[in-house]
Amino acid sequence: MDLEAAKRSLEDRLAELGVRASKIEADLRSPGSKDWTDRASEKENEEVLEKINASERVEIEQIRAALARIKEGTYGECLQCGDPIAPRRLEALPYTNTCIDCAS
Ligand SMILES: [Zn+2]
Fold this sequence. Notes:
With about 100 residues, the chain is mainly α.
């Protein structure tokens, strides 16, 4: 299992999905953020957030979770049964956290 390659493809995909938008989201969630004291720009950012497709948000969360698992050293293990996930499945779905048997 090439973790570096998996990490790269996850990070590339995350960038594609609009890292900028999710960073704005994180800023909006943190109360008293210094960056967004201006009401006008805050409103503008909320509008940006609304444009993020809901399914993309789910994917962003899954990719972040997968990157966290790479850090923890549990990437590539099925969360349900603990078996290794087939490399082919990981190549097709780098953010997956279940093996083919548990997913079906
Ligand atoms: Zn499984």
